Amino acid sequence: MRAYRGELRKLASLPSVWAAVAIGVLLPAVLTFLNARAAARRGGNVDLGFQELAFGVVGAIILGVVAVSSEYTTEGENAGGGRQITTSLTVVPSRWRLLITKLAAMITVVAALATVSSAVTLTIVEALGVSDFGRLPGVVLYWVLTALLASGLTLLTRNGILPLTVLILNTSVVTVTYLLTKLTPLAAFFPDLAGFRMFIERVELPVRLSPVTGGLVMTAWVAALLAAGFLLFRGRDA
């Protein structure tokens, strides 16, 4: 528990984490507010709020990346100018234990963020009389799995720039995975598209997946990436 609390304190000390929290709460709420009027003109949208929460997952991506990449940043001169990972392994010599506690702390923060963000966003939607809080667990699970996916990619690269760039662009600018479904139906099994099924009802994809199947597909991707990241982290120099 001491290592877990230490990881929570470490996350709380990172400015990028607070930026991620602000993005995760404000972005879907603002988008929902702006899109509500257009949805009303079209006769309603069963996925209003949930589509916007899919964009808000950017906050979870940032958290998942910085939870790992912060270990490879250079500390200040007062700390010897080394990297944080050296200090972390001195405090927690077991690499497996360090990663497990780090991911557990990150999951806690992301789950709390997803719950708060969903509550705020769906309260806005409920004011229009069209919300569905029953899909909230799917949103929370999607955010957590996306954050773990980001952490797994960062473990592989040991650098936060590439995972942040790829995942944020794919989530908010150009959804490359969706474009690939126009070429092959197998692209519907990419983790983000499969995960959407857990809480978004209307998705125009060539393969239909149930919420449970979509969650299992995304979980399999996350498990594979984390396993590969764990193995590399265990064998590489700090």
Please provide the count of β strands: 0
Strand proportion, as a percent range, falls in under 5%
On the 0 to 100 scale, the average pLDDT is 87
Q: From the helix content, strand content and strand pairing, which structural class follows?
A: mainly alpha
- Specify the biggest β-sheet: none
Shape: globular
Computed over alpha carbons, the radius of gyration is 19 Å
Low-confidence sequence ranges: none
Helix content: over 70%
Task: Walk me through the structure.
The structure is a single chain. The protein is mainly α and 238 residues long. Helices cover 70% and strands 0% of the residues. The chain is built from eleven helices and no strands. The protein has helices at 2-12, 15-41, 50-56, 58-69, 84-91, 95-126, 136-157, 161-172, 176-180, 191-196, 211-235. It is globular, with a radius of gyration of 19 Å. The mean pLDDT is 87.
Please outline the helices and strands.
Blueprint: H1 2-12, H2 15-41, H3 50-56, H4 58-69, H5 84-91, H6 95-126, H7 136-157, H8 161-172, H9 176-180, H10 191-196, H11 211-235
Helix pairs in contact: 1-6, 2-3, 2-4, 2-6, 3-6, 4-6, 4-7, 4-8, 6-7, 7-8, 7-11
Q: Quick gist of this model?
A:
This protein is mostly helical. It is 70% helix and 0% strand.
Give descriptors for this structure.
238 residues, mainly alpha
